[in-house]
């Protein structure tokens, strides 16, 4: 349920093959995890340092933070080009749901809250919802379905039934009008 960032690096085919071969070698190995110094960022840095002639984790700091590694990657030149070639953001389900809810107008947000007033209760006949035009009802239900999907990761067993009821109602309606275009936040390395 976290945002993902894909970082494309400017590595030669031989360098990429060496990194992949090394990763294959260490699959399944256990390493001691130390939150500040031996963490995911330090392991990535050490792996990339097999093919990059730069220290991606300068030794003056007692910790290695992912943000520091990304800044190092974005400022490192490799074969005369920036090491970091491209960045792509993949938003989490939580972020998508928040964006969808924020895109609803005030009446639609009130309708969404009226339809799903508590964790295990749906009121599909709520007046705030039934008085909306069908297209706006579609947008409300799309947002609630996104929220239901997000909530299913918990321990509650009533969300499949809630999702089923929302889907049945949604299938009776036309396509919505919601603008679900999403603008990615700035990348960490851009700070």
Summarize this entry quickly.
This protein is mainly α and 191 residues long.
Largest sheet descriptor: 2 strands, antiparallel
Give the oligomer, counting copies of the same chain as homo and different chains as hetero.
single chain
Q: What is the mean predicted local confidence, pLDDT? A: 87
Decide which structural class fits the backbone: mainly alpha
List keywords for this structure.
8 helices, 191 residues, 2 domains, two-stranded antiparallel sheet, elongated, two-stranded antiparallel ribbon, mainly alpha
Notes on the structure:
The chain is mostly helical and 191 residues long. It folds into two domains: 4-90, no CATH class; 93-171, no CATH class. Helix content is 47%, strand content 9%. The chain is built from eight helices and four strands, in the order βαααβββααααα. The strands form two sheets. It has a two-stranded antiparallel sheet. The protein has a two-stranded antiparallel sheet with strand order 2-3. Strand 2 and strand 3 form a beta hairpin. The chain is elongated, with a radius of gyration of 23 Å. The model has no long low-confidence stretch (mean pLDDT 87).
């Amino acid at each position: 349920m976290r945002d993902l960032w894909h970082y494309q690096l400017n590595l030669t085919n031989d360098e990429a093959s060496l990194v992949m071969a090394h990763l294959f070698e260490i699959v399944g190995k256990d390493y001691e995890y130390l939150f500040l110094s031996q963490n995911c960022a330090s392991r990535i840095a050490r792996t990339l340092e097999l093919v990059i002639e730069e220290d991606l984790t300068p030794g003056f700091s007692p910790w290695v933070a992912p943000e520091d590694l990304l800044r190092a990657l974005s400022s490192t030149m490799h074969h005369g080009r920036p090491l970091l070639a491209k960045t792509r953001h993949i938003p989490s389900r939580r972020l998508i749901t928040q964006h969808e809810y924020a895109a609803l107008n005030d009446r639609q947000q009130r309708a969404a809250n009226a339809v799903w007033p508590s964790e295990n209760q749906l009121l599909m006949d709520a007046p705030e919802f039934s008085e909306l035009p069908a297209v706006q009802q579609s947008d409300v239900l799309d947002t609630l379905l996104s929220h239901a999907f997000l909530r299913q990761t918990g321990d509650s067993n009533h969300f499949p039934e809630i999702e089923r009821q929302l889907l049945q109602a949604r299938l009776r309606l036309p396509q919505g009008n919601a603008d679900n275009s999403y603008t990615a936040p700035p990348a960490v390395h851009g700070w």
